[in-house]
């Protein structure tokens, strides 16, 4: 902390934490801490010590502005209320703003297709996480939606690509396919090894035509290879 910081804190303590004999008969602490704590109380009562807004540049600016003074875009200010009160007011306004879009969007959503990716036993207590790395991409040029994901069980060396047309009435060829990495890098890294196998750590679209993947060598040993690969969608 700088000396200026220490002076600021000392001045704050001197001003707000002096003993206040006139408060001794009141219930609670005998120190003038209400100026801080009053803002944090979760209640609708008015503040004990409202802030002094005289000389505040923002309030002066609003006061002198004919257009902004009554603007519905500005959230109203409650100088007599705590932050909890203002927070509840703001949450109410936000919920009201979002309710109509939520209703409209919710009614417009419908299932375009259903694909069975895997099956699990109904008797299992806990469902294993088999779906990983979902990454979405929208190709606006071709009007296509893409989803990249991997399946954890027996296909850790595969990455799946789901493709759908933005127009749900239209279909595309190869709607879903899997790319298996396996040991395709043997020739470039170690020609004498036939056991080198790779799994996908992460995958994202680089652009509309390219997918970037981070591969990890699957053998159980230290110093595993990490490979950053760019794969053309074609």
What does this structure look like?
- The protein has 234 residues and is an alpha+beta fold.
- The protein folds into two domains: 3-108, no CATH class; 135-184 and 193-232, no CATH class.
- Helix content is 26%, strand content 24%.
- It has helices at 3-16, 34-37, 57-64, 66-69, 83-108, 186-189; strands at 131-139, 144-151, 158-165, 176-180, 198-207, 210-217, 226-232.
- Strands 1-2-3-4 form a four-stranded antiparallel sheet, with no helix packed on it. A three-stranded antiparallel sheet has the order 5-6-7, with no helix packed on it.
- The radius of gyration is 31 Å and the shape is elongated.
What's the short story on this structure?
With 234 residues, the protein is an alpha+beta fold. It is 26% helix and 24% strand. Strand 6 (210-217) and strand 7 form a beta hairpin.
What fraction strand? 15-25%
Computed structural class: alpha+beta
Largest beta sheet: strand ordering: 1-2-3-4
Query: What is the CA-based Rg, rounded?
Result: 31 Å
Shape, principal axes of CA atoms: elongated
Oligomer: single chain
Descriptive labels:
234 residues, alpha+beta, 2 domains, 4-stranded antiparallel sheet
Question: Topology of this protein?
Answer:
Blueprint: H1 3-16, H2 34-37, H3 57-64, H4 66-69, H5 83-108, E1 131-139, E2 144-151, E3 158-165, E4 176-180, H6 186-189, E5 198-207, E6 210-217, E7 226-232
Antiparallel strand pairs: 1-2, 2-3, 3-4, 5-6, 6-7
GO biological process, one term: cell division
Domain Anaphase-promoting complex subunit 4 C-terminal half WD40: 136-234
Pfam family, one: WD40_APC4_C-half
